[in-house]
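Example 9 (inverse folding). The structure is encoded as follows.
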């Protein structure tokens, strides 16, 4: 299972109080495949950077999900078929690069002191 962040922009005519409940129908795809929904964060109505389908505002929702790739693709497909959804974006959480992870471990072992290479670079 991988960690994903899904951002959905919904039509502003949708009532903000009903957004989470209407998304639940789509999120069943993830739950049925053994995934889990970590958090549903409704940002509310916001102005769009550019018009989408002649709309200047949209209701933003961010969902944190642990799921398989196929489940996320199916969820994205179903959301794009819905007329109330203006735009979707799925981002996969990327693990910390190895070099940064090594520096973080070295920093933790040294009790928070900066490594010698970092000290000379900042001077």
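The amino acid assigned to each position is listed next.
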């Amino acid at each position: 299972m991988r960690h994903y962040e899904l951002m959905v922009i919904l039509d502003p005519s949708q009532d903000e109080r009903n957004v989470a409940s209407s998304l639940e129908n789509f999120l069943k795809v993830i739950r049925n495949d053994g995934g889990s929904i970590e958090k549903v964060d409704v940002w509310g109505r916001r102005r769009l950077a550019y018009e989408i389908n002649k709309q200047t505002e949209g209701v933003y929702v961010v969902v944190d999900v642990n799921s398989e790739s196929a489940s996320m693709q199916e969820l994205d497909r179903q959301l794009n078929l819905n007329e109330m959804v203006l735009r979707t974006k799925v981002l996969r959480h990327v693990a910390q690069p190895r070099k940064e992870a090594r520096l973080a471990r070295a920093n933790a072992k040294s009790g928070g002191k900066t490594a010698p290479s970092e000290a000379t670079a900042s001077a």
